[in-house]
Every structure is written in C-alpha cells, then in structure tokens.
Amino acid sequence: MNKYFIFTFNLIISYLIALTTNTYSQNIDGWIGKWAGELIIYNAPGYEKISSLHMELHISKTDSAGLYNWHIIYGDSAKDHRKYLLRTIDESKGKYSINEKNGILLGADMLGSKLISRFIVQGSMLDITYEMENDKIIFEVFAGSDTPEQTTTGSEENISVSSFKVTNYQKAVLMKK
Q1: Long-range contacts of range 52-58, CB-CB < 8 Å, 24 or more positions apart?
Q2: Residue whose C-alpha is closest to residue 54's, from 76, 34, 71
Q3: Of 44, 138, 152, 174, which one's alpha carbon is 20 to 30 angstroms from that of 132?
Q4: 108 near 131, Cβ under 8 Å?
Q5: What is the DSSP string of 11-73?
Q6: Listed range (40-49, 72-81, 122-131, 133-142) with the worst mean pLDDT
C-alpha cells in the first residue's frame, strides 16, 4: 500500500470516529453548578510551573432555552470575573458559541465529554478545553504563536505540514462546590 492511501484512510477513520463521538455529545445541563480549583500555569522552556491561582467556573441556565451563564473567575472575583454566555447552536452536532459580551464570539465544539474552542487572538493560537470527567471539570489551555515554527513537505506525496510551538500550558481540576 502506498503512504498516501494509508494517510487518507487514517484521516477518514479519524473523521468517522469524531462524527460518531459527536453524535453522543454530552448535554451542558449536566455541567450546571459552581466549580472551583487551582489553575496551574506553565511556560516554556522546560514547561516549569511559573504560578498558580484560584479559579472558578459557574454555569447556570438563563431564561432563554439553550443559553447558559458561563462565568470564569480567576483569583479574586472582584478583580477578574468574566461573565460570558454559552449558546447552544446545534446540540446534535455539538456546536456551541461563547459570547464574551463585547462583540467577540468564540466557536466551541463538543466532542464526547470535551468542549473545545480553538482561536487566534493578537498573534497567539489558543486551544481551550473543558472536559467533564466523572465529578470534575478538567480545564486546559494550550497557547503559542500562530506562525508556524516549521513547515515540511513529504518527499513522495508532496504533503505539506506546519508545526506550531506551544509556549504556555494551563490546567485546573475543578470540583463542584
């Protein structure tokens, strides 16, 4: 078998698995509550822990169907309380939108038990995930430049691949209060 066929086959299988997983996406109603934990921040090089702070995620229903309060609090709520809204766009397809209430809307996709938002802001690419795991929410941020660190091309199939460096990683295990 040639390498292009194997690459294409693996890509199709991955896509089908994602579709299947997405069909059984979790409803946000199961996430409602107040969640809290320690956010740990790591930076390159070596990804040493550089700091940590208290973090909370408050999720509640609003009066509108498919619309949730999505409040993120870092440290002291009087200093950094982000009052976002999470809107269900199409639950059967796992499509959501996070409204920062300042004109910015971030797309989000529910894959299995993980809500994922990928975006670029001011030259930084971010992947932010929230994963419901048993009785906790795992919050993670992967961040780095939106400029490829390297781009290579396969010699046989002429497939170009760009790699992006991750320079910051954040993680919090949030427990229900």
Answers
A1: 55/139, 55/172, 55/174, 56/174, 56/177, 57/130, 57/137, 57/139, 57/174, 58/33, 58/34
A2: 76
A3: 44
A4: no
A5: HHHHHHHHHHHHHTPPPGGGG-EEEEEEEEEEETTTTEEEEEEEEEEEEEE-SSTTEEEEEEE
A6: 40-49
pLDDT at 23: 38
Contacts of residue 11, defined as CB under 8 A and 6 or more positions apart, other chains included, come to: none
Q: What is the CATH number of the domain that holds 13?
A: 2.40.128.20
User: Domain range for residue 71?
Assistant: 3-176
Neighbouring CB atoms inside 10 A of 28's CB total 20
Quick one: which of 98, 136, 87, 133 has its CA closest to 114?
A: 133
Query: Alpha-carbon distance 69 to 114, whole Å?
Result: 18
Name, in order, each residue with C-beta under 8 angstroms of 126's C-beta and a sequence gap of 6 or more: 117, 118, 119, 120, 141, 142, 143
Q: Which residue type, as a one-letter code, is found at position 68? A: Y
Count the residues in the chain: 177
Q: What percent of the chain has pLDDT over 70?
A: 85
